[in-house]
Amino acid sequence: MKLGETREGGRGVATPSPTSTAPSAPAKLPPDQPPKPLPPSTPVKRSTPVPPAQNTERAEPKFVRGNSVALRQTPNAKASIIDRLDLGKQVMVLAREGQWSRVRDDLTRREGWVATRFLSDDEPVAKREAPEVKQTVEVKPKISPSMIIQRIIAESIAGYPGTCACPYSTDRRGRKCGSRSAYSKPGGYSPICFAGDVTRSMIEAYN
């Protein structure tokens, strides 16, 4: 009796032996069909690294020393303007990069870049004070009392309409007026003809 056969009912029945399963060979492509090429990989674009700004140890106060200084978005003269800073405004410097400083306006809470040359440690004068205009007071030269007395007498005589204001005046014919003068006549116009007629109050009022 051969291996793998058993007896059943006195007759030998052949039992098939188990077969081992062998791995299948990879499918072969037809000779006229070349393998498909792999798609090329897409290159990854890398942005140019921007050097970080040099951070200051702490925010330090500075003052703007220019009129309407541009607060820009980036440290570039052609960058967009965020705001305008007035002369004398205090800002806090947060960082520096080359000739630019990153600042913060504590009032508006805006941050941006300004040229460092427009910043100062000292607070500048916001505006120059207009020169003080001194009123010109006309100062009359001091006149001696004797000169004032002469002027008072001369002005009083000049104000008289006639020719015989005082006793020592002369009329149109050249004669002294004497008692015919207005000074000698009681009542009417009383011109001042002599120094004794000028009072202290007249002198003070003349000045």
Description:
There is one protein chain. The chain has 207 residues and is α+β, with helices and mostly antiparallel strands. Among the domains are: 54-120, SH3 Domains (SH3 type barrels, Roll), CATH 2.30.30; 145-206, no CATH class. Helix content is 10%, strand content 24%. It has helices spanning 145-158, 200-206; strands at 5-8, 11-14, 54-64, 69-72, 81-85, 90-97, 100-105, 110-115, 119-120. It has a 5-stranded antiparallel β-sheet with strand order 8-7-6-3-9, with no helix packed on it. Mean pLDDT is 75; it is low at 1-10.
In DSSP terms, counting alpha (H) and pi (I) runs of 4 or more, how many helices? 2
Task: Provide the low-confidence segments as ranges.
Answer: 1-10
Order of helices and strands: EEEEEEEEEHH
Strand order of the largest sheet: 8-7-6-3-9
Radius of gyration: 61 Å
So what's the oligomer here? single chain
Overall SS class: alpha+beta
| Main beta-sheet annotation | 5 strands, antiparallel
CATH class of one domain: Mainly Beta
Residues in helix, %: 10-25%
Mean pLDDT: 75
CATH topology (fold) name of one domain:
SH3 type barrels
What amount of the residues lies in strands? 15-25%
